[in-house]
TrEMBL record:
Enzyme Commission no: 2.7.7.-
GO cellular component: cytosolic tRNA wobble base thiouridylase complex; mitochondrion
Residue span(s) of domain Cytoplasmic tRNA 2-thiolation protein 1 C-terminal: 374-403
Gene3D superfamilies: HUPs (3.40.50.620)
Official protein name in the record: Cytoplasmic tRNA 2-thiolation protein 1
Pathway: tRNA modification; 5-methoxycarbonylmethyl-2-thiouridine-tRNA biosynthesis
BP term (GO), one: tRNA wobble position uridine thiolation
Provenance organism: Terfezia boudieri ATCC MYA-4762
Binding site for ATP: 61-63, 67, 93, 171, 176
Origin superkingdom: Eukaryota
Length: 411
């Protein structure tokens, strides 16, 4: 007996044979309907969360990878098709990773031409005097993601300030969000768990001229409900030009493990990604301030270090910048950075006592320290004397002479 060839099911939305079984929900769709459904879902995400307003200028954090390329393509398609009135601008950060970012930036340059969008490129070298290749030569491969995440977040803010843009979007997708929810859950980091699923967060702007704490850049993730597999399918069937190589520096180990875990769960239960994301959102609802001043998540934790309460954990999912994580060399390095920061802060408060200095008589002082002010070094808005990037740069610049001597010696 010969097996009868299985007939393809029809597309859920038209009589054509289905070509795609959606990873997200198993729906069978033809390619045209998969593409239009994907776009409609992004539009719905934008509309239900009131993400953009007509006439707004949006910077798209463009790395040349699949996520931000799909984001740029979908946003410009929707903008034209639905006459949304958005001014889109590609903003790329060149971290200075030879053999990786230089190639992906060539892709962004092509994308800018393909979509007819303006492009601005800013580099770590011009902003900080360091490339990531230099950083890795100095600190090694283990904690480099921490540096890169802090630098990139600030670089995007500075780019926005230069361009007079107050809203930046990134290509973070549902898989990235699920990873972050799991990481925060596994660390027991409730403050971060409470905010990591937000579609929009506010960051400090790099406003050196302004001490106005309201000068912040909004960061949004329009692809937060899009599965990575569907993003790849969309890019493939729309024939988008994107760069596939992974960063030459491996992701932080903990995020790598969370990523593997999400993928393993997805294999046995495809809805796992959305389930984790929805659970994260539900936790956020539970952890949010309940009544008046009372919150279930006390803010003390972040008073001890650079407060990132208004900031998401990372820009670039490889770059978990959580100072709460504690693994090997990364942990040691973070502890050094904290010490450096505390040393600096202590100096400041003893030399110039301020009425808001924390004291047993003034229990609210610590809370007040979290108010945003300008970094004494670079002017970036921060809750401490020095912003995270400047703390890191101090430590890097101290190591530089030693590294140069070593290089000269080896060379
Ligand atoms: N060098 C960069 N310049 C501008 N934006 C960036 C850069 N790197 C990352 N981003 C933004 O942060 C998002 C998440 O970055 P991540 O490093 O996780 O890359 P990814 O998940 O591979 O995304 P992509 O496929 O867009 O590279 C990107 O989609 C992009 O919007």
């Amino acid at each position: 007996m010969t097996a009868r060839p299985q007939r393809r099911p029809a597309c859920l939305q038209c009589p054509s044979p289905a070509k795609i079984k959606r990873p997200k929900n198993g729906h069978a769709l033809c390619i045209a309907h998969f593409l239009s459904t994907f776009e409609t879902e992004v539009l719905q995400t934008m509309e239900t969360s009131g993400l953009f307003s007509r006439g707004e200028t949006i910077a798209i954090g463009a790395s040349g990878g699949k996520d931000s390329t799909v984001l740029a393509s979908v946003l410009s398609t929707l903008n034209t098709r639905h006459n949304l009135g958005l001014n889109l601008h590609l903003l790329s950060i060149d971290e200075g990773i030879v053999g990786y970012r230089d190639h992906s930036l060539a892709t962004v340059q092509r994308n800018a031409r393909q979509y007819g969008l303006p492009l601005t490129v800013l580099s770590y070298r011009e902003l900080y005097g360091w490339t990531m290749d230099d950083v890795v030569a100095t600190v090694g491969k283990k904690s480099n993601c921490t540096y890169c995440g802090v630098f990139r977040r600030q670089a995007l803010d500075r780019g926005c300030e230069m361009l007079n843009i107050s809203h930046v979007v990134t290509g973070h997708n549902a898989d990235d969000m699920a990873e972050t929810v799991l990481m925060n859950l596994l660390r027991g980091d409730l403050p971060r768990l409470a905010r990591c699923t937000a579609i929009t967060t506010r960051s400090s702007s790099s406003s050196s001229s302004s001490s106005d704490a309201s000068a912040t850049v909004r960061r949004s993730k329009p692809l937060k409900y899009a599965y990575q597999k569907e993003i790849v399918l969309y890019a493939h069937h729309r024939k988008l030009d994107y760069f596939t190589t992974e960063c030459t520096y491996a992701p932080e180990a903990f995020r790598g493990s969370a990523r593997d875990l999400v993928k393993a769960l997805e294999r046995v239960r495809p809805t796992a990604i959305m389930d984790i994301l929805r659970s994260g959102e539900a936790f956020a609802g539970l952890l949010r301030p309940t009544d008046g001043n009372r919150t279930l998540v006390p803010p003390q934790k972040c008073a001890e270090k650079e407060c990132t309460c208004n900031e998401e954990d990372s820009l670039g999912t490889c770059s978990s910048t959580s100072f709460a994580s504690g693994e090997g060399a990364m942990h040691i390095h973070e502890a050094q950075l904290r010490n450096l920061h505390h040393h600096h802060h202590h100096h400041h408060t003893t030399e110039t006592p301020s009425p808001s200095s924390p004291s047993p008589k003034n229990p609210t002082a610590k809370r007040k320290q979290q108010l945003l002010r300008s970094c004494t070094q670079c002017g970036y808005l921060t809750s401490q004397d020095l912003c995270q990037a400047c703390v890191m740069l101090q430590s890097l610049n101290r190591s530089r002479p030693a590294v140069m001597v070593q290089i000269e010696h080896d060379g």
